[in-house]
Amino acid sequence: MRRENRRIERKDHFKNIMYISGAILGVLVIAFVITFSIYANNVKKNNSTSMLNTRNVSELVPNREENENTQTASTEMGKTVNEMAEIQNTTNEENQITESEIIETDTNTSSETTEEVVEETENVEAPIEEEKKELVFEKPVDGEISVAFAKDSLVYSETLQEWITHKGIDIKADKTTIVKAAEAGTVQSIKNDPRYGLTIIVEHADGYKTVYASLLTSEFVVEGENVEKGQTLGTVGTSAIFESSDGPHLHFELLKDDEYLDPSIYLK
After folding, report:
1. What is the per-residue pLDDT across 6-25, written as a single tens digit (0 to 9) for each?
2. Between vectors from CA 90 to CA 73 and to CA 93, what angle results, nearest 5°?
């Protein structure tokens, strides 16, 4: 029994070896066939390429007649090229001449235009600057100065019974005497000042202001009204409480950019 089993196993083993060997052999045969086919195709292609190259070379080799024709054609072509080059050079020269003429024309035109502009500019008259009119202040009321300007010094006040500064001048005048504008300007304000009584302030050019105080009346002008030099503003009174002991007079002040000036220096 054992011998029979061994014999069967050996038989099966031998069959397996045969099957494997056959498969390997088949694979080798297939590989050989494929390799041979590829090699044959390559050889065929190489032969075709060599034949084409030989034919192309034979076609490219010119004979004498073709060489002569080629040389003639080359000569004629060279002549044609030279002639075309000469024509092209002539055309370029003509174009350059035309461009230079155009540039000269434009230059002449621009220079003529510039000259015309310069002439027009010279002919235009420069605007005449108006001369700045110098302000000349006139005395707003006739009379003598009873109390002088004392901004940096002191004057004695009969009313207050003490030494005080005085930022204007007092001009003596009878009550109801006409008070006139010292210079043309605009009425800035009309008010009752607690110290200087009924007061009119007039604004002038260049930052000047004039102050008319201790008035009796002011009905001749209104705030915002433009007044001329010498125009009536009011009348002299005694409304200045701080100067009530000084009798009827005009308290007059002059300012430049809100700085007090000595009016007696500027009044003509």
Report:
1. 777 777 777 778 888 788 88
2. 150
Q: Which helix (H) or strand (E) holds 179?
A: strand 178-180
Distance of CA 19 to the CA centre of its chain: 98
145-266 in CATH: which number?
2.70.70.10
Residue 251 CA, chain-centre distance (Å), reads 55
Pairing of strands 226-227, 185-193: antiparallel
Q: Which residues contact 253 (CB under 8 A, 6 or more apart)?
A: 167, 168, 169, 210, 211, 213, 260, 263
Question: What's the helix, strand, coil split of the chain in %, to 5?
Answer: 50, 25, 25
Name the residue ranges covered by the structural domains of the chain.
145-266
Exposure of 242 in the CB half-sphere (CA atoms within 13 A): 19
Q: Distance of CA 168 to CAs 3, 175, 210, Å?
A: 160, 19, 10
Q: Which of 170, 142, 144 is nearest to 158 (CA)?
A: 170
- C-alpha 76: how far from its chain's center? 66
Contact at 8 Å (CB) between 215 and 237?
Answer: yes
* Torsions phi, psi for 210 (to 5 deg): -125, 145
- 215-241 residue pLDDT tens: 999 999 999 999 999 999 999 999 999
CA distance 85 to 18: 88
With a CB cutoff of 8 Å and minimum separation 6, the contacts of 260 are 149, 151, 167, 168, 253, 254
DSSP letter for each residue of 140-151: SS-S-EEE--EE
The amino acid at residue 32 is F
What does pTM read for this prediction? 0.53
Q: What is the largest CA-CA distance in the chain?
A: 176
